Amino acid sequence: MDKTERIAYQVTEVPCSTRPLLYDDGLCIGCNRCASVCQCDILLPSPEKGKHPVVMYPGECYYCGACVMVCPKPGAIRLVHPLMNQAKFVPVKG
Amino acid sequence: MTHTYEWPYANEAGMEETITSDVLVLGGGLSGCFAAIAAARRGQSVVLVEKGATERSGSAGTGFDHWESACTNPCSGVTPEEIANAYVREQDWYSNGIAHYIECREGYDRLLDLESFGGKIRDTEGEFAGAEFRDEETKLMFAYDYKNKFTLRVWGSTFKPALVKEMKRLGVRIMDRTEATALLVSPCGGREEGAGTQEEGPARLRGAGAMGMDVHTGKFYIFRSKATVLCMSRPARVWLFNPDTVGLCEFRPMQSIGSGHAMGWRAGMEFTMMEKSVRAEFSAAGRSFPPYGAGNNHNTWYAATMVDARGVEIPYVDRDGRELSSVSERYYPARGQKFFLKGGVIDNPKYEYRGPETLDFETLMERGYQLPFYADLSRMPEMERKVIWGMMVGEEAKTKIPIYQNYTERGFDPKKHMLQSYGTGWQSANFLEQERQFFGAPGGVMHDWDLKTNIDGIYAAGDQLYASDCAGFACATGYYAGRKAAGCAASQAELPPYQGEDAVAEKKRLLAPLFVKEEEGISWKELNMAISKAMQNYCGGVRCEALLLEGLDLLRQFETEWAPKLTASNPHDLMRIHEVLDILTVSQIVLHASLARKSSSEPLFFKRSDYPQMDPEQDRMHIVIRQENGQVKERRIPLDFFGSLQEEYEKRNQDYMKEVGMRG
Ligand SMILES: Cc1cc2nc3c(=O)[nH]c(=O)nc-3n(C[C@H](O)[C@H](O)[C@H](O)COP(=O)(O)OP(=O)(O)OC[C@H]3O[C@@H](n4cnc5c(N)ncnc54)[C@H](O)[C@@H]3O)c2cc1C
Ligand code: SF4
Ligand code: SF4
User: Fold this and answer.
1) pTM of the model as a whole
2) What confidence score (pLDDT) does residue B344 get?
3) Ligand 3 lined by A37 (C-beta under 6 Å)
4) Which band of pLDDT confidence, cut at 50, 70 and 90, is reported for residue B198?
5) Residue B550 phi, psi (nearest 5)
6) Ligand 3 touching residue A76 (CB < 6 A)
7) Confidence of residue B427 (pLDDT cuts 50, 70, 90)
8) pLDDT surpasses 90 at B187
9) Is B279 left (phi over 0), alpha (psi -120 to 50) or beta?
C-alpha cells in the first residue's frame, strides 16, 4: 500500500443553501468540544489554534444540537434551522 | 468563497492494525452500549466500534422522552405477556415477538441500570409533584395510559454520556470515529436446519470479527473476536435524498444508513420483511418540519389540545366515538377496555388497542373545522403543559436545542402562543407515494431466541433487528444480545480463524476511491441521488416483476460501471462513499425481497400490480432471503415461529431470572 502514502489528504468546505451553525468569536475559546461530539463529523478543528472549528460540511448537519449542549461557553455556538423549517406560531385565540 | 485546507488529522492510509477481543460490538448507540456493558459484566473483554462519537451518537444521542413497555415497573398495571402479545396482534404477527417480549420483560431493569449509571428516570426534585401522571411514592412519571402506567416519561438527554462513563468504568475499549465495513465470516461445513420448513437451510457460517477503518486517518483495522454483536441501526436514504441538506433527509441520524444490513448481506446473513416500507413520514430536507417542532398531538406531544383556524377546539374521542370532555380523560382507556397502545410504531391501531384520539381529518372537514390547525397548550392544565413543553420537548431527541431553546429564543411561550400544524397528520408532512422510508417496524436481520443471526457467533440488537421499535427495545435487546454473545465467547478457548485474503481485498476496496482523480470521478452524492431516483422509479408504491428486474439491472450497472468512479480526497469523503455503497447493497436487498413476495400485503404496505391479492394464507409467512455465492436464496418461516413467549423465554434465561431475583 505504499502508493497510498503518497496521496496527501485535502479538504474543501462544501457549501450548501443553509447555515446551521453560528459561532460567536468573542465567546468561543476554541476548545473543539463541539467538533469532537458531532456524530456526523461535520466540524473540523481550525488550523488556527484557539479559533472555533470550521463548519466543513454544513449540509451534513443532522440538527441534533449535541454541539451546543456540550459547549462550555453558553452562546459561543448557536444552531439555526433552515428558513423553510421555521415553523409558524401565532398568539392564542380567546 | 470556499477554502481548501490541510487535513487536520494524521494520514494513516495503508497502515493496518489487528485488534482482538472476546466480544466485538459494532455500533455505539443505545443497543451497542448495553451489549458492551452486558458482555463486560460477564468478564469478557469488549471492543466497541462506533462511526461517530459514542457520547452523543445514534438516534438517542441527544435524548428520548418516553420509554415504552416498562411492564415490570412497580406501578405497572399490565404484564409483559399482555403487552408483547398485544404488539404481535396489533402488527398482524409481522412483529418481532421475541424482541418485544425481551423489552417488556427486561426493559425496566435497563432503566434501573441507567439510573445507577447517573441517568435521570424519576422526578427526584418534585418539579411535577401532585401531577396526575406522577407516582408520589416512586416519583416515576407516566405517559399515555395513566391507568396502566407502562410508558414512562424519562430524561433521555442524560443517558448517552452516562452509558459511556459506565463502559469506561468496566474497561470497554471504545473506538470512536471508526467505521465497520465488513464482517469476517468463514464457512464451517454443513447446513443449518430449515427451521420448520422443507427448504434447504443456509450453509453454516462462523463469524470471526469484522473489518473497518478510522474515518479521521484512513487506517485499516481487522477486529478479531469470538462473538460479534451488530448494533448499526436500520437503513435510510434509499428513496429519500437531498444532496443539499443531506443531514435532514431522514428521521434517523445521517450515520445510520444500514451498514449492518449491507455487510450482513454480503456475508450471507438472512433478512426478513425488507419488502416493507411506508410512504415517508419524515424528511426535514423538504416535505416535513423538524421532528416535534410543528403543532401536533402525538408521541412527545400527546395529548396536546388542538384547535382550528378559528380557535375552536378539536374534540378527542374514545374508540367508540364518544367525545371526551376533560383533558384528563385523554389518558385513560375506554369503558370496558383494559389498556390501550400508543407509541413509536402504533399508527392506526385496531379497535382492541385504540386509545383516545382527535377526530379524524375527514370528519373534521365535514363538520366545518378550518385549516390550519394548531397545538394550543395554553388550554391545558399547568402540569400537562409543562410536561409537554419543557420536559418531553427538551428530553426527546433533537429537541433540547433545536426546538425548546430555539423556539424560546424566537419568542414562543406556550401560555401565549399556539404552534401551527402542517398537512393533516402528526408528521406535519405531505409525501408522495413513491417517497418511501423504513418506518413503523421495518424489516431487518432475522434471528433466533438468542438474537443470534444465521451466522454462528454473530448476534444483532436494536434497530438492526427486523420489526424493531424504540429506545427500550434497543436497550433491552442490546443487553440480551451482549449476554448471549458473552456466553458464546466464554465457551471458546481460541479466536476463530479468518481468511487473510478477505482482509487484503477489503483494505483495497476501502481505499480505492482515494486513487480516482477528482476530474475523472463522481461524488458519493451523485450516486446516492441516482439510487434514490431509481428506487422511486422501480420500487415505489406499486411494484411488479418487470419493473423490479429493471431496477436490479440498473443498480448492477451502478455497481459495475459507476462505483469504481467514486472519488474521495480524505477519509471523511471515503466514509460517505462507503455509506452510499452500503445503500446500494440495501436497495438490492429491498428489490430481491420485493421479488420474493408474490402477493400484496396490507401489514407490509406492499403492493404488487402483478399479484394484487392481499395477504393470501400461503404468504402469511416470513419470506426470509439471503445471498449465497451470488445467488439469492429464500426460505419461509411461520410468523409465529417464536412460540409461546413466556415459556420460550424462561427456558433460555434462568440465569438472568435468578440474577434479577437476587437483586430485587
Ligand atoms: C428523533 C428521534 C426521537 C426518538 N424518540 C424516541 C422516544 O422518545 N422513545 C423511544 O422509545 N424511541 C425513540 N426513538 C427511537 C430510538 O431512539 C431508537 O429506536 C434507538 O435509539 C435505536 O438504538 P440502536 O442502538 O438500535 O441504534 P442507534 O442508537 O441509532 O445507534 C446506531 C449506532 O451505530 C453507529 N453506526 C452505524 N453504522 C456504523 C458502522 N458502519 N460502523 C460503526 N458504527 C456504525 C451509528 O453511528 C450509531 O451510533 C427516537 C428516534 C429518533 C431518531
Ligand atoms: S447539530 Fe448535531 S449534527 Fe449538526 S453540527 Fe451540531 S452536533 Fe453536528
Ligand atoms: S465547544 Fe464552544 S467554546 Fe469550544 S470550540 Fe465549540 S463553540 Fe467554541
Assistant:
1) 0.97
2) 82
3) no
4) low
5) -60, -40
6) yes
7) low
8) no
9) beta
If you average pLDDT over residues B604-626, what whole number do you get?
A: 98
Higher pLDDT, B124 or B287: B124
Range with the lowest mean pLDDT among B163-177, B385-399, B421-435?
B421-435
Q: In the predicted model, is pLDDT for residue B193 greater than 90?
A: no
Q: Give contacts of A11 with chain B, Cβ < 8 Å.
A: 4-7, 569-570, 572
Give the A:B interface size as CB pairs under 8 Å.
Answer: 202
> Which cell numbers in the block locate residue B66?
418516553
DSSP secondary structure string, B34-64?
A: HHHHHHHHTT--EEEE-SS-GGG-STTTT--
Q: How does pLDDT run across B118-148, given as a tens digit for each residue?
A: 999 999 999 999 999 999 999 999 999 999 9
Ligand 1 centroid from CA B160, angstroms: 11
With 0-12 CB in 10 A as exposed, 13-18 as middle and 19+ as buried, what is B82? middle
Tell whether ligand 3 has an atom less than 6 A from the beta carbon of residue A21.
no
Verify whether the Cβ–Cβ distance B13 to A1 is below 8 Å.
Answer: yes
Contact call for B13 and A4, based on CB within 8 A: yes
> Which segments of B43-117 does DSSP mark as H helices, in order?
80-90, 97-117
- Which of A17, A44, A87 faces B293 most closely, judged by CB atoms? A87
User: Which atom of ligand 1 is nearest the CA belonging to B579?
Assistant: 41
Identify the structural domains of chain B with CATH numbers, from first to last.
25-120+155-283+437-664 (3.50.50.60), 299-420 (no CATH)
Indicate if the pLDDT at residue B228 is higher than 70.
Answer: yes
The total number of residues written for chain B in this structure: 664
Q: Nearest C-alpha to atom 6 of ligand 2 is from which residue?
A: A67
pLDDT of residue A1: 45
Smallest Cβ–Cβ distance between A4 and the set B255, B420, B511 belongs to B511
Closest-CA distance, B247 to chain A, in angstroms, reads 4
Q: Which residue has a Cα nearest atom 8 of ligand 2? A: A38
Q: Which three cell numbers stand for residue B423?
A: 398537512
Q: How far apart are CA B172 and CA B46, in angstroms?
A: 5
What is the interface pTM, i.e. ipTM, of the complex?
A: 0.95
Q: Domain A10-80 - what CATH class?
A: alpha beta
Contact at CB, B398 and A64, closer than 8 angstroms:
yes
Q: H or E stretch including A36?
A: helix A33-37
Q: What are the domain boundaries of chain A?
A: 10-80
Instruction: Check if the beta carbon of residue B56 is closer than 8 Å to that of residue B28.
Output: no
pLDDT of B425 strictly over 90: no
